[in-house]
Design brief:
The chain is mainly α and 216 residues long. It folds into 3 domains: 72 residues, no CATH class; 47 residues, no CATH class; 46 residues, no CATH class. Helix content is 44%, strand content 2%. It is built from 8 helices and 2 strands. Strands 1-2 form a two-stranded antiparallel sheet. Helix 7 crosses helix 8. The longest helix has 18 residues.
């Protein structure tokens, strides 16, 4: 085995170890039990690894979490929002979903003819995730390989925008707008003839509102 083949083998084994796109074997779909909240797995504490029943319950709990944390894609109106309503009756959900789901099934992780890495996928609607993280955190995750090039750059931009985006509620926006209006009423901008410059007032209102929101 040459060095390149050995490296590829190690890399595919590593990805198989950390990224999962399949339900555990010998598990069944989640069914909410009567008298308990629908998303009970998410509301429960992580399984105790020291418990004698841990190995017995782990795989089913893993699947239950996948089905209750949004890891399993189900087609809805958002998938087809860019398709005109007049032709919605012609939609083929699995072909026309804008998220390109379900993904093609892949029997094993491998490098294709273009030397691109293709991750094993046994369930085309299941997001790539790490089972250990899912079992510990009990929340939605999305794990995929980015390598380099345009995909990696797009991921960096997405993560940067997602991390720093502002969460402003309506009350904050209106308070900033009201403060700007009040400030301009007290001291309105004037043109060379001493008349109120409505165009400049509009511009300043936007500037003051934006500055207030940025400050918050």
């Amino acid at each position: 085995m040459n060095a390149d083949s050995e490296f590829k083998q190690k890399l595919t084994a590593w990805y198989d170890d950390i990224i999962c796109q399949s339900f555990p074997k010998n598990t069944v779909p989640y069914v909410a039990t009567e008298g308990n909240p629908k998303q009970l797995p998410v509301l429960s504490r992580p399984l105790d690894p020291d418990s004698p029943q841990y190995e017995q319950n782990r795989d089913q709990h893993h699947r239950d979490l996948c089905e209750n944390t949004g890891l399993v894609h189900a087609h809805n109106a958002t998938c087809f929002k860019h398709i005109p309503r007049r032709i919605h009756s012609l939609i083929d959900p699995d072909s026309d979903c804008r998220f390109e789901l379900p993904r093609p099934l892949v029997a094993e992780t491998h490098f294709d003819d273009d030397d691109d890495l293709v991750i094993r996928c046994e369930n085309g609607n299941l997001n790539g995730h790490n089972p250990t993280a899912t079992l510990c955190l009990g929340c939605n995750t999305d794990l995929k390989q980015t390598a380099s090039g345009s995909v990696a750059m797009a991921m960096v931009e997405y993560m940067g925008n997602y991390t720093i985006k502002l969460q402003l509620d309506t009350a904050i926006v209106f308070s900033a707008l009201c403060a700007s209006i009040k400030a301009l009423q007290n001291k309105p901008p004037q043109d060379v003839d001493g008349q109120i410059d409505k165009s400049e007032m509009t511009r300043l209102m936007m500037v003051k509102t934006t500055n207030t929101l940025v400050g918050k």
